[in-house]
From TrEMBL:
Pfam families: Lycopene_cycl (PF05834). NCBIfam families: GG-red-SF. GO terms for molecular function: oxidoreductase activity, acting on the CH-CH group of donors, NAD or NADP as acceptor. This is Geranylgeranyl reductase family protein. It comes from Methanobrevibacter millerae. Gene3D superfamilies: FAD/NAD(P)-binding domain.
Length: 394
């Protein structure tokens, strides 16, 4: 059979554009199908990446809005200060970053098809477009987000949390009062573990000039999330809302298939999301590198079965960590605001701030929990009446 392309990628967001760029470097004929008229809009993420980003992808200086050195973790009545001497994360202009990656792919020979992919045939390698055309390819890569048409055709269970976010102006005095600190306000993020946001949390991410992205992900509707954020702001700050955003965050499911027939999934479409934070861009970028090997071999050796190696390598590298984070998330589901206050108070008394500062990592939260278990701190800081349930989870 003659194919129109070696590879068709559904979605020209950061993940689709990255895998497209890698594949075209291997002399493959690659197309991206993108439904948005303006890539990167509307904004649907918090826009913060760990310091490890440069291990996985380019990040131009002009895309970086701010750098952060640590975090303030809040329960209703207690605060943990997680402070480091070095930059641990970058706050980025996510819309411009998406556009940068898309331009990079196109400038290197990837064809952009500005249409919506309404369906795919993963056995024959056919992508059906919104203008009633169809295009064929040896491999179809699903990078089409939380409602992936490719994932649906593979037969995966697609579930998600809702997420809401506001761009808000807050003065330094109010931020310092909220944190009970006089540290430089834009050097730190805030994570609020409140009962009404679990299994997610509420975040405050500093940009520039007293502007913050304030948001949360949870099981609530967008309307209810808007109320939660507004009530939080009213209780703690004088503020001005500049913009509002909303979106969906896929829920990690270790039973989902990443490969079937001629189809392969990366990123949100594959639910490659950290359960504890809802982030997943660095995991997706790493999986672009992994998938690149198997897609290129499958095309050049004309053996579609080689795609299966991607699923195996992903499982080996990430499944244990993501399953561990799912257990952490299940643990927090057991806690109400009083329990969280107890946990934070005990954590502060047992030097957990220092442990988190040393062992904490945005991408591998399990290391902190393992260190606390090793030191026998889990029993000391957790409310005793739920300790048996936590033991059963882990």
């Amino acid at each position: 059979m003659n194919y129109d392309f070696d590879v068709v990628i559904i979605g020209a967001g950061p993940v689709g554009s990255t895998i497209a760029f890698y594949l075209v470097q291997n002399d493959l004929n690659v197309a991206m199908v993108e439904k948005k008229t303006k890539i990167g809009y509307p904004l649907q993420c918090a826009g913060i990446l760990s310091k490890h980003i440069f291990e996985y992808n380019e990040l131009p200086d002009e895309i970086i809005l701010n750098t952060v050195k640590g975090a303030f973790l809040h329960s209703k009545n207690h605060i943990l200060d997680i402070i480091t001497d070095e930059n641990v994360a970058y706050v980025i202009d996510r819309a411009n970053y998406d556009q940068f990656l898309s331009r990079r792919a196109i400038q290197n020979g990837v064809k952009l098809i500005s249409k919506k992919a309404i369906d795919v045939d993963i056995e024959k390698g056919i992508t059906y477009l919104s203008d009633e055309r169809s295009i064929s390819s040896k491999v179809i890569v699903g990078c089409d987000g939380f409602k992936s048409v490719v994932s649906k055709n593979i037969g995966n269970d697609q579930q998600n949390f809702k997420a809401s976010q506001m761009l808000v102006s807050i003065n330094d005095e109010d931020m310092n009062n909220f944190r009970k600190s006089n540290r430089k306000t834009d050097d730190y993020v805030d994570m609020c573990l409140y009962e009404n946001a679990i299994p997610g949390f509420l975040w405050m991410i500093p940009l520039q000039k007293n502007n913050y992205r304030v948001g949360l992900f949870s099981n609530d509707s967008h309307r209810q999330q808007n109320t939660i954020i507004t009530d939080f702001l009213n209780e703690n700050f004088e503020y001005e809302i500049i913009e509002k955003y909303k979106g969906l965050i896929p829920i990690f499911n270790n039973k989902n298939r990443l490969v079937k027939n001629r189809a392969i999934l990366i990123g949100d479409a594959a639910s490659q999301i950290k359960p504890t934070t809802g982030g997943g861009l660095l995991i997706a970028f790493d999986n672009c590198k992994i998938a690149n090997k198997y897609i290129t071999d499958a095309v050049k050796k004309d053996n579609i079965n080689l795609l299966e190696g991607y699923q195996k390598e992903f499982n080996k590298k990430y499944l244990k960590e993501l399953n561990y984070q799912s257990k952490i998330q299940k643990t927090f589901k057991l806690l109400n605001d009083d329990d969280l206050d107890y946990l934070f108070e005990k954590a502060k008394q047992n030097d957990c701030e220092n442990i988190i500062s040393v062992y904490g990592d945005m991408d591998n939260q399990s290391e902190v929990v393992k260190e606390m278990k090793k030191r026998g701190l889990m029993f000391k800081i957790m409310p005793k009446f739920i300790y048996k349930k936590i033991v059963n989870i882990f």
